[in-house]
Amino acid sequence: MTVDWAGVYPAATTQFRTDQSLDLEATTAHVERLIAAGVHGLVMLGTLGENTALDVHEKRDVLKAARDAAAGRVPVLAGVAECSTAMACRFAEDAQKIGVDGLMVLPAMVYRSDLRETVHHFRTVARASDLPIMVYNNPVSYGVDIPPAAFADLADENTLVAIKESSDDPRRLSDIVNACGDRYILFCGVDDLALEAALLGAVGWVAGLVNAFPEETLRLWALATAGRWDEARTLYRWFMPVLHLDCHVKLVQYIKLAQAMAGMGSETVRAPRMTLEGEERTRVMGIVQHALDTRARIAAE
Fold first, then answer.
1. 69, 217, 234, 269: which has the fewest C-beta neighbours closer than 10 Å?
2. How far apart are CA 179 and CA 224, in angstroms?
3. 255 with 209: CB under 8 angstroms?
4. Which pLDDT belongs to residue 301?
5. Is residue 158 packed enough to be buried (19+ CB in 10 Å), middle (13-18) or exposed (0-12)?
6. HSE (CB half, 13 Å, CA atoms) of 65?
7. Cα–Cα distance for residue pair 62/10, rounded to 1 Å
8. Long-range contacts of range 203-206, CB-CB < 8 Å, 24 or more positions apart?
């Protein structure tokens, strides 16, 4: 299906059994819950999908399962996070054959490319398939930055359609528009900057805590895009302690724990990640539990 580049696109988690084996049934059940809540699209195999912890066969299986579960109701994007440009191209080709609707492409993993290398990577992957691409810029997590001038350089690659901006600097959105005009569709990629991103022109949100709080995430985005700023601010301030969990090196563990507490899936992660314990676990659970205990009140306001 054609990707409608707008709205809330969960960075969906990949579900595992307690022995860390891939649980496709639970993964597709979670996809179904998200679609039923009203999300506008799905991003499979992103950071929260633990892309780099899966082998290539598992990745293909996750994409096939998500494609079948979505059944054309919402577009499905495949994360592309490989260690070399050639591997990323091969996976982009595989994703197109599987029948997903678009890609979310990351820089090459492990090696921190310089600007010339980064532009070459995205230009090469852009030409590896006919699928539309969201470029994922997250220098905080991956150590590779794609500045606005680089997006201007890449503007002649027609398959590069959207940008998931996760530089942790909302000024970047205005800088991209100033450098590139309306060439790219802008998405928020940082949960606790969602309202700022909407104000600055982002039309979509690749969200993390939506895996545990789908209704609240969708309501916040709807209020923001409707310009109902007073209501949006009230909801945002309530949501903020939870949204901060998206901005930590352990965001996968934090969000999967929140997901489990909300009855939306399992907290099991794949090593080297491990489930939380001790004071850290208690602290995160307290944040999530407070939100769960007060969500009915905030929904009524």
1. 234
2. 25
3. yes
4. 73
5. exposed
6. 22
7. 15
8. 203/5, 203/6, 203/7, 204/5, 204/6, 204/7, 204/8, 204/9, 204/40, 204/162, 205/7, 205/8, 205/9, 206/9, 206/10, 206/11, 206/43, 206/46, 206/104, 206/134, 206/164
> For position 297, what pLDDT does the model report?
85
Which residues touch 292 (CB under 8 Å, ≥6 apart)?
261, 262
pLDDT at 296 over 90: no
Instruction: Report d(CA 212, CA 240) in Å as an integer.
Output: 14
Show me where the domains of the chain are located: 7-300
Separation in Å, CA 215 to CA 38, 155, 208, 259 = 8, 35, 13, 13
Number of neighbouring beta carbons within 10 Å of residue 262: 17
How many angstroms separate the CA atoms of 137 and 24, rounded? 28
Residue 69 corresponds to which tokens in the numbers above? 């579960």
Share of the chain above pLDDT 90, in %: 97
For the record, the structure tokens of 267 come out as 């907290």
Q: 45-78 burial, b for 16+ CB within 10 Å, e for fewer?
A: bbbbbbbbbbeeebbbbbbebbbebbeeebbbbb
The per-residue pLDDT for 51 is 98
Q: Which fold has domain 7-300?
A: TIM Barrel (3.20.20)
Alpha helices of the chain — where are they, by DSSP H? 24-37, 56-70, 85-98, 115-126, 139-142, 148-153, 171-180, 194-199, 214-225, 229-243, 251-261, 278-300
Band (pLDDT 50/70/90 cuts) for residue 171 is very high
Reduced to 3 states (helix: H, G, I; strand: E, B; else coil), residue 198 is: helix
Output the pLDDT for position 45: 98
